[in-house]
Design goal:
The complex is a heterodimer of chains A (about 350) and B (about 350). By secondary structure, chain A is mainly α. Chain A has a single domain, classed as ABC transporter involved in vitamin B12 uptake, BtuC. Helices cover about 80% and strands about 0% of the residues of chain A. Chain A has helices at about 1-10, 15-30, 40-65, 75-90, 90-125, 130-150, 160-170, 175-190, 195-205, 210-215, 220-245, 255-265, 275-295, 300-340, and strands at about 155, 245. The longest helix of chain A is centred in the last third of the chain and has 41 residues, at about 300-340. Chain A starts with a helix and ends with a helix. A two-stranded antiparallel ribbon of chain B has the order 1-2. Chain B is globular, with a radius of gyration of 21 Å. The termini of chain B are far apart. Classes of the chains: A mainly alpha (about 350), B mainly alpha (about 350).
Chain lengths: ~350, ~350
Amino acid sequence: MPEKIQRRWPIDMDSMILAGILVAILAFMGFALGDSFFNIRNISSMVSQIPEFAFLAMGMGVAMITGGIDLSNVAAMNLSGIVLALCLTSSRLAGGVGIWGAILIGAVSALLVGVACGVFNGLSISRFGIPPIIATLGSMLFFSGLGVGITNGEGITGLPEQFTRLINMTIVELPPPFLFMLAVFVVMSILAPRLTTGKTLYMYGSSRVAALFTGLRIGKSLALGYALSGLFAAVSALILVGRTNSIKVGYGDTYQLQAILVVVLGGVNPDGGKGKFGNILVAVLILQILQNAFTLFMFTPYAKKLIWGGMLLAFMVVRTLLEKWSDRRKIRARMAQMAEGA
Amino acid sequence: MLSRLKEWFTTGNITVRIMTVVLIAYCVLVGLVNPTFFSLEIFLDFVRNGAGQAVVAMGVLVVMISGGIDVSFLAIAISSSYISTVLCTTHGWAKPKTFLSLLVVMGISCLVGVLLGCVNGLVIYFFKLPTFITTLATQSIFHGALATFVGTKPVTASRMPRSVIEFGSGAIFEFTSETGSWYGLSYFAIPVVFAVGLTWFILYGTVFGRRIFALGSNALAAKRCGVNIFAAQMFVFAYAGFLAGVMGIIYAADLRWVNPITMVGDELIVIAAVLIGGAKLSGGSGSVLGTLLGMAMIVILRSTLVLLGISSSWNDFFIGAVILVSVAVSAWRSRQESKAALRFDYV
């Protein structure tokens, strides 16, 4: 039985390293900060901050598994947040269908905007063959430009209380966005490597030419993948708007680098083809705990920036070295085998 | 003359041809709506506003031709100009209002830029990392390190070396308009001409330039042909850092203010200009003329939407649209070419 489990749920090195880092950091926090870290208020504030970032990171993960990147997801998040806020603050809409109707329409149209942004990216990558970095760089300017144009660059505030209360309520001490995030992570890590679209995207990430020759429906799968990234951006917009009670182009700009950092830390190969959503979740937790610790240590935002950048670079370097090392070991084992055979 | 023009037009680089037509058409459109657009004053203003970005765009172009991308140049520009002005003011170097003292400030700034560029090059060469994510990381590192270890106090106009101020306010030649105000060709034109000329010479006039093209087209083939990949890769990032150092001083002179904590976000504009000008992320293509036209397009677009009666908050939207359309056209064309030649580099 354990062998069967082992086969079905293989534990790879990335997961073990990540779990080790998480435990080490938690232990360090316990020693260094003690109760100022492990208290209900601190932990519940962390739990409420995680989901909006985790959804962005998941979208980035989908894009990076295909060997691409989604630089536009923060801009898509802002755009769909703006659409949501416009629906919520429109007195005409609230007068017509009632406040709950306005919330429903706002949420649905925000999600649709997110999906539309993602499909736009996916099509410009698969139909026109624009490299993902450039396609999403251009669409990032395009989406945030649209947001600035609609709002004149000003923030939207004064949202109805019902919406913020809905996002910020708690079920058994835990906020619903957090529970929803956990559920989505579980679903993604089960379905992504099993559904045809998911498999296609993993294969496309590991070798584009080979994927082309297998006759897989690459264009459709890419569009779906980026649409998923856009959908996640919209979900995080719902959470962000509910949490901050306002929206403005430029919210969450620091998430861009952090999302890439988390995905790389979570063992996703930036060249594509490899990566697990469970590991991304662990990486998100690690980042959030560190973030919290830096705030408790009162680091300046610049010191944080330095550390995030340094971590991203360090992880990529370590990753390359580890891969080189394991390749060399494989070759050596193979040669030993051949020598035995001869 | 006309036949010469016709000849150039039928044989020249297609991206450059399309861009010239689009640019002229757009200028005519703006001129028709608002005739004040066609004036020397506005043109000279474009030169001044686009100077810093045009200089650094040359560096980004060289990196993109070699098959990489550099998004850390803004952090390099801020770091190098801040370190340079702080050093010069605290040690009293570059006090006199002379050309030589400007060269000292500029030289230190370029040196810091080259060093930071070398950091990019070393990391990317030795660990074979993707250039975009690496330079994104180093951008954070450079800026974070500057604010953490060097300082966060801005250098104000009163403390700035006089020569830098003079560099920003003076002009090579001046006119007085009918209303009495004066305008002229800013000194900023000199570094632009220098950067464009040097890049042109390196790319088209030296063997090393051809090697950079070779590295970008096919790194493995270039290596087999005996191109020193290390030297080429180090050079492109160091060169981008060097020009970022120049841009830093231009910005300092323009704003009369070096603030190490705010990053004036123009990275996207510069990269957009290089892309619109025909450079490809996969490397091996791109031209100096195309980049200049791309820069001109963006600078003109940014400052003329108001003349067309569109609020300036729509600037980013239109620039994003221009980028997407132009890269879509060029990607589509190269995909068709690859398909026709049965190459599978387009997927």
